[in-house]
Fold:
Amino acid sequence: MRRFIVGFFATIGVVVVVLTGGLVAAGLWWADGFDDAEPLPDRIVLELDFNGSIDEAPVVPGLVGLLDESAPLSLIDYVDAIDRAAADPRVTGLFADLSNLSLPLAQAQELRAAVFRFRSVGKTAVAFADSFESGGNGPYYLASAFDRIWLQPSGMLGLTGLQLEFPFAAGLLDRVGLRAEFEKRYEYKGAASAVTESRMPPALRENMSRVAESLFGHVVSGIATARRLGGGAVQAVVDRGPLLARESVTNGLIDSLGYREQARATLDGESAPVGRYLDGAGRPHADGTRIALVQLDGAIVRGEGGGLAGRGDAASGAVVAALDAVRADPAAKALILRISSPGGSYVASDTIRHAVERVRESGRPVIVSFADIAASGGYFAALAADHIIAHPGTLTGSIGTLGGKISAAELLRDWDVTIGRISIGENAGMFSPTEPFTNSQRDRLRRMLDAVYADFTDRVAAARRLSADEIDALARGRVWTGEDARRVGLVDAVGGYAEALQLARQAIGIAPDAPVERVRYPENEDTWDQILDLLNDREFIAALQTLATVVRQAHILAETLGAAEIRLDGTDGRIQSRAPAVVIQ
Structure:
């Protein structure tokens, strides 16, 4: 038994060596052999195969593909592939399998626009799904942009409308002895309502009802136009949904019933997945006047961020570094800032807004393109731009603030847990989860939120040229769809990547059809450099250190068990108070 235990944990130690060495070897293989990529055929059908949701921004470009050939593609990868294929005489058609796709309305609108551009040059696009019964309205709404839609005979069309659900757990928290102590500015700011309310507040219901009406209105009108049906006819079908496959054909929403290979056989050419096609054909917008692209994707936090997968939050340090790189590049004549963020830290959002302002002050036009969501801090970060555009379905605005904590004082008391405190300063424990706010602390929190809200609304009013009365009507935490935000003046136009490029061309004074080189900042590193960066990444090093510690402790444990001696070392537990950031989320 002892030999097994020692051998087992020693094997874990080998993993550390193999992992590190494997990355190095992979880099050498990549640098040496990847140039031998298979050439593209003479007749191509570009295939879009989706699996779940779509990332807005690329995930560690190059390196993830090195480690995992099936790494997910980003939204801009799909858009680039469709646009490149539209101009490629070798591409005869576009085929999309939407069976496993899930996407928000704004992403569907971005892809729909690309499909319509593809079809506008006379090429055929075919969509297939085994069933439109999951993923919400987005997959079928996207499918309606294609020339023909195929559905498997056993499938269904789950177009049943739109329902937004919001859980309110104040009663549950009360039962377990937790108290949510949050302040907000103002009545439409609903992010904390999930823990402060036991039912939907009237202001939140009013706001979300309008959002739902706007979002689904775009779905109905888009389907009606694309399928040459009246809006009333589509709404009537929705009210009868879900539909069986044959009912979908009868009602004019599906063109043909059949299986994937039958749908694919209607297009002539050899299949090329998006990744392979872009590797072989190259991306559009590769030559001409340089226009920079920076992507702000995720909740906005202070600091540098980072991490093994390149996912997660939008760290102000990383975003600012990319913006500074644009400002330092004399070849970059304009900036497109793509934002997909629900908000976050007020300080971090302001840091990014200031960096955007510096790019604009350097003489470069700044175009902000909103993706699926640009709320609170995401909207705040965009205020220094020359132009702001959004998709009709982008969740926009939510100009407001909130802050607070959840206090466990009652829970601790019920479980006979006492907290010994040593405090220096009246508000030292202000954000401690073990005690409620005092009256003076709550008053201080309110003053902080008032100051942040005043700064937020003042900056919006100045940037969007709104009066005090106008900004009061548009703010107070209210959420808008992109179309409604354009109507009330919070954004300038509706559109996506293509419209952002056109605005950038116009701003720098070149022709609408002038070639441009769109470059993403920070610029992609050489794959070998990415591996070296990974080996220097703090999270990666910490993971290796943790694994090494586990190996050491496991070896000691194995030796101890082998000697028939068991020892447990205890540690003391402390609850520390920490002041959280004020968020505009």
Summary: The mean pLDDT is 86.
